[in-house]
Amino acid sequence: MVISDRNLGILSVVGLLLIIIVVASIMVKKSSKTSNRLWVEFEELGILQPEDPVTSRGHSIGKIGEVQWKNHKALVEVVFDQPMILHEGTILRNENYSIMGQRRLEVTVDKKSPIVDASHIYQGEFEPGIAEVLHLIDALKEQILMVKDVVILLQEGDSTQESLIDVFNKTVNTAEDFIGDMEKIVVRTQPQVRKILAKTHDLGDKALTLSEQADTSLQNIYQQGKHGIEEANKLILNIEESLVSLIEFIEHFENQPFYEELMEKQEVLVQINVLVKNANDFLSMFTEKGGFKIIDDKGKPRGLMKLRNINLFGKTARQKARIRQKKAERALTKQK
Length: 336
Fold this sequence. Notes:
- Helix content is 58%, strand content 16%.
- It is α/β, with parallel strands linked by helices.
- The chain folds into 3 domains: 33-127, Elongation Factor Tu (Ef-tu), domain 3, CATH 2.40.30; 188-255; 257-331, no CATH class.
- The chain has an 8-stranded mixed β-sheet with strand order 7-1-4-3-2-6-5-8.
- It starts with a helix and ends with a helix.
- The model has no long low-confidence stretch (mean pLDDT 75).
């Protein structure tokens, strides 16, 4: 296939335009990630101040802008002459570059680290210079002089304070006197202490004898009390058996055929009620004094006698049932 010169020229122009577009897009993309300034934080600033140079490999690339103090740390603004891409691993070193103590900020860019935006705050490094070393030497000299004065004061004392040697000697003498007095007191009190110990030993023997006697008495009391408790338990069992027999007798009495006929008679109701009351009083006497209770299957207290079909006033239930039956029979006869 043969391409004419005209078509070849058009393709060349199109290819050149594509190359220009790609390069321009790359430049725009990189320029969007660049910044004219950054912020760095120093724990110690030295004499670094605004307008001091910012360099990279010894070449000036900007200057120091604003300096702020926050939480005992210096926050320094770095202004670049040309926009730069900010990388996370970039090192910013506050260093001394002259004998007179002038300072500058040396920037070492790490292009392999991730890219960050302008709001990122770097942690700077501080390198002491001659001025800082001289200042530390002066401070050390002052500390040495203070220590010297303290040592002289302890050794010789002054008009208001005694020397350490005199204070030590007085303390030792006081301790020796105290020890001597303690020895005298011990010698004087030794016979009395022996007498007290002997009395204490005798009292201990007496207390031991009394404790043995008390233990024997307690055992006797325990045996007697145990025997009394056993006798009381036997009595309680006898009372319980009597009460159970009484209840069985009452239930047997209630189940007799003549009991219902007897309940229908109004003349003996008062006497039966008195009999039931006396039986219940007899049972309650044991319940209150002896702590016994006779209960039914549901756990409720049970009396000695149940009053079934008892009606002290008016007609009984059986009589009412017979009246209703007669009324029903009369109604049936009328309907017929």
